[in-house]
Structures are given as structure tokens and as C-alpha cells.
Write a structure and sequence with these properties.
- This protein is of the alpha/beta class and 284 residues long.
- It has 12 helices and 8 strands.
- The chain has an 8-stranded mixed sheet, sandwiched between helices.
- Helix 3 links the parallel strand 5 and strand 6.
- The longest helix is centred in the last third of the chain and has 14 residues.
- 51% of the residues are buried.
Length: 284
């Protein structure tokens, strides 16, 4: 397989309502990777260490949601992440795929799994909210969310450093290169920043707890034990609601399991999909 780069995997597609940028690599069962909602976030920034490995076995589709990356801008009142993901699959002619989502991306995939269950063969979340407050949640905004908001309102190396340090357990992952890339990406799209600001103080993705309980797709709920943005109790709340689910807690890990524990993340994702095989009827 050719070397996977940001440039040679970059593609665009127009769906019924959206102009979506994404990265594609590999062949096999479709595996959709969905990023979180931080400033400067994109499919490539969230998953570039994972794509090449997963593409050895799967058709990897790493999506920039509307309002992030190189996809079109959107205001909060029009944001529909799960609807955009459904349209994305339909535009590509894909009937069913495994979905992996980090933080906001995970919540978006949860919504898709109960809104359009026929599209989701497997559901994987990392650091995602359960949509309801837990007993271990802070009374106000978490440390990570406060840093995220500061970096949106004043994108700079200083605010981005505090934000990224809050995402990671091991600050060795907070490199000058990463900070510069995230600040550059955020400042390059002021329309994305304004779109995020239009929803300030509101949930990035609203979840209906009653409908979460209807999810039937095999579900893997990954969470960092040291996540300072979304407490790992959220994974336990989701596991109680989703019958066919299991929880995977990673110690010495913050909000980004896929970046802090890349090799383990890739192995676990593959093992989970392999252990819950897609039947011919499911794939049709």
C-alpha cells in the first residue's frame, strides 16, 4: 500500500445538503472516523496516526464534519452532525459502516446509531458524553471545556497549549508542531469559529437518553481514566443504557485515546470489529 499522507487521501463530496471534505484509504468494510469539536480539529488532526494502520484492513473514511476542517461552515441552528454522516454514506453508496467517534464525534455517532440504525454496523466512542450529568461531573464546566472555550474565543499558542494539555495525560504529546498546526487551522477558518460561537453555552450534540437505550449495534465505549474534559463515568452511564455494549477504560490517558495510546487503540478497534463480524445480510 502506498504511503498514506494528508494530501494523497484528501477528497471532497457533495451530499444533498453538505459539502464535505474527508480522507480515504484502504479497502474492506467501511470504517468512518469522526473527530471531536475542539478549535482547529479535523479528521486528519484527530486520526492521522491511526489511518494507515486501519487502512490495511478497512476502507477508512475520516470525515471533516460541517463546521470543522475543510468542510463547509455551519451555524449552530443548522448543525446536524448525524444527518451529515448519513448523507455522507448515502452519497458514497455505502449501505452500512462501522463508526468511530471521539468526544463530540462520538455523540454524533450515538445519535446516528439510534436515528439510522440500519447504517451502523459497529459503534465505537472515545471520551464521549452520555448526554446526562453524572454524579462525578463538575458542578460547572469541566477543566477541558473551559480551556476549549478560551481557545475558541482567543486562538493563540498560549490558549491552544492550555487546551491541548488538558486533552492529554502525557504532555509529551503537546508538541510545538501540534500547537502551531491547531492554531493555524483555527485561524484559517474564521467562519468555523463564528459557527461554533453561535452555539456557545449549548450542547454540541444533544442526546435523547430514551433513544440511546434503543441502540442495537455492537458498541465499544472507550474512555481515558484521566480524562479532564468528560469524566469516564459517562462510559458507564452509556453502558447501562446500551444493551450490546462493553466499556474499555485506559489508565494514564486523557481525552484522546487514539493519539495517546495509538497502537492499543488500533488493535482494540480491529479486535472489536473482528469479534462482531458483519454478516452478508447486514452488509447488503
Amino acid at each position: 500500500m502506498a504511503i498514506v499522507t494528508e494530501e494523497n487521501t484528501s477528497k471532497r463530496i457533495k451530499t444533498r445538503n453538505w459539502d464535505i471534505h474527508y480522507h480515504e484509504a484502504g479497502q474492506g468494510h467501511p470504517l468512518v472516523l469522526v473527530h471531536g469539536g475542539g478549535p482547529g480539529a479535523s479528521a486528519w488532526s484527530n486520526y492521522n496516526p491511526n489511518i494507515a494502520t486501519l487502512a490495511k484492513k478497512y476502507r477508512v473514511l475520516a470525515v471533516d464534519l460541517p463546521g470543522w476542517g475543510k468542510s463547509q461552515a455551519v451555524t449552530y441552528d443548522r448543525r446536524d452532525n448525524s444527518g451529515a454522516l448519513a448523507e455522507f454514506l448515502e452519497a458514497l453508496g455505502i449501505t452500512r459502516a462501522a463508526f468511530v467517534g471521539n468526544s463530540m464525534g462520538g455523540s454524533s455517532c450515538i445519535r446516528l446509531a439510534y436515528e439510522r440504525p440500519e447504517l451502523v454496523s459497529h459503534l465505537v466512542t472515545m471520551g464521549s458524553s452520555a448526554g446526562v450529568p453524572g454524579i462525578f461531573d463538575p458542578a460547572g464546566l469541566s477543566e477541558g471545556v473551559k480551556a476549549l472555550e478560551a481557545a475558541y474565543f482567543n486562538p493563540s499558542i498560549e490558549t491552544m497549549r492550555k487546551f491541548v494539555e488538558g486533552m492529554a495525560f502525557d504532555t509529551r504529546h503537546v508538541t510545538d508542531e501540534l500547537l502551531a498546526e491547531r492554531v493555524k487551522a483555527a485561524l484559517a477558518r474564521p467562519d468555523h469559529i463564528e459557527g461554533w460561537k453561535s452555539g456557545h453555552g449549548k450542547p454540541m450534540v444533544r442526546l435523547d437518553p430514551a433513544r440511546v437505550a434503543t441502540i442495537t449495534a455492537p458498541t465499544l465505549l472507550m474512555h481515558g481514566r484521566d480524562d479532564r474534559t468528560v469524566h469516564f463515568n459517562s462510559a458507564l452511564v452509556l453502558a447501562r443504557a446500551i444493551a450490546n455494549s462493553r466499556v474499555y477504560i485506559v489508565n494514564r490517558c486523557g481525552h484522546w485515546v487514539q493519539l495517546e495510546h495509538t497502537d492499543e487503540f488500533n488493535r482494540v478497534i480491529d479486535s472489536f470489529i473482528e469479534g462482531n463480524p458483519v454478516t452478508i445480510e447486514q452488509a447488503a
